[in-house]
Amino acid sequence: MPRDEARPRRDWRATRLRVAGVVANVVRWIGLVFAAVLVLHVIFVVGGANSANSIVRFIRSWAETLSLGFTDLFVIQDDAKLQVLVNYGIAALFWLIVSAIVAKVIRRLGGSSY
User: Fold this and answer.
1) Longest alpha-carbon distance in the chain
2) 3-class secondary structure, 114
3) Which of 13, 29, 67, 114 is the right S-S partner for 91, CB 3.0 to 4.6 Å?
4) Residue 57 CA to chain centroid, in angstroms?
5) Tens digit of pLDDT for each residue in 45-82?
């Protein structure tokens, strides 16, 4: 490249905003997928799905991991299905809220005003 030609300047602020937006969107999608797994588990339990089914087992194993400490937050003696609905539902809300907050922080650190 000859020295006389000016190289195009890169707008680093715009690049930083774009990268932060992509990372924030990935975080939001991950939170959404985690919440969806928990909701699927609730649907399978409340709906009485076959617990020997491989899909149900796969979702249950992931849901148990993703529920963190919420699995036995509320103990409802009379209704096990209601207990799953409440506890795993709270865990799903947790993931949605946390991913939204983390995404907002990432966008702010990236220089976005929203």
Assistant:
1) 82
2) coil
3) 67
4) 20
5) 999 999 999 999 999 999 999 999 999 999 999 999 99
Q: Where are the domains of the chain?
A: 13-109
**What SS3 class is residue 33?**
helix
pLDDT digits (tens, 9 = 90+) for 4-46: 677 778 888 888 999 999 999 999 999 999 999 999 999 999 9
**Alpha carbon distance 63, 45 (integer Å):** 12
* Whether 66 contacts 37, CB under 8 Å: yes
**pTM, to two decimals:** 0.86
Q: Under a CB-based contact definition with an 8 Å cutoff, are residues 35 and 92 in contact?
A: yes
HSE-CB at 94 with a 13 A cutoff on CA atoms is 15
* Mean pLDDT across the chain: 93
Paired tokens of 57: 């087992």
DSSP 8-state assignment for residue 9: P
Return the SS3 of 76. Answer: coil
As given in the structure block, the two tokens for residue 44 are 């399978």
